[in-house]
Amino acid sequence: KPFVGRAGQLLDKMLASIGLDRQKNAYITNVINWRPPDNRDPSPEEAAACLPFLRRHIELAQPKVIILLGAVAARHVVGVSDGIMKLRGRWMEYRVGDRMVPLMPTLHPAYLLRQPAHKKLAWRDLQAVRARMAELNLPESD
């Protein structure tokens, strides 16, 4: 299960702050479907092997908005090598089938637990996501 423990609890609070709930209207997946040894970042080869499966997950979920959590996700999903502090808060687009989906990179909850002063940056990103959801007339959870 993706995002468990303290980082998962923080993620749930982050999602709830913009009307999302992983039980109702948010789908969460990882770049790879296993934890690399010693909790290291996935290698380029591991991520490349899993990318077709990740793309299919996204296609099946049919997202209206995508939130990428952290530099690893940004690097492997959209193929950018810029650091997350440079990428976060800037809208990008991701092709899902025959349409483009708005994508917002933001800070990973585990990083925010280590650097709580940066929660304000993630909050700004989440506010931008909430605004985009409103523009798209996406319902919030109860």
Query: What is the mean pLDDT?
Result: 93
What is the percentage of strand-forming residues? Answer: 5-15%
Tell me how many strands there are: 3
> Could you give the distance between the termini?
23 Å
Q: Describe the sheet with the most strands.
A: 3 strands, mixed
Walk me through what this model shows.
By secondary structure, the protein is α+β, with helices and mostly antiparallel strands. The chain has helices at residues 5-16, 44-61, 71-77, 84-87, 109-114, 119-135, and strands at 66-69, 92-96, 99-106. It has a three-stranded mixed sheet, sandwiched between helices. The longest helix has 18 residues, at 44-61. The model has no long low-confidence stretch (mean pLDDT 93).
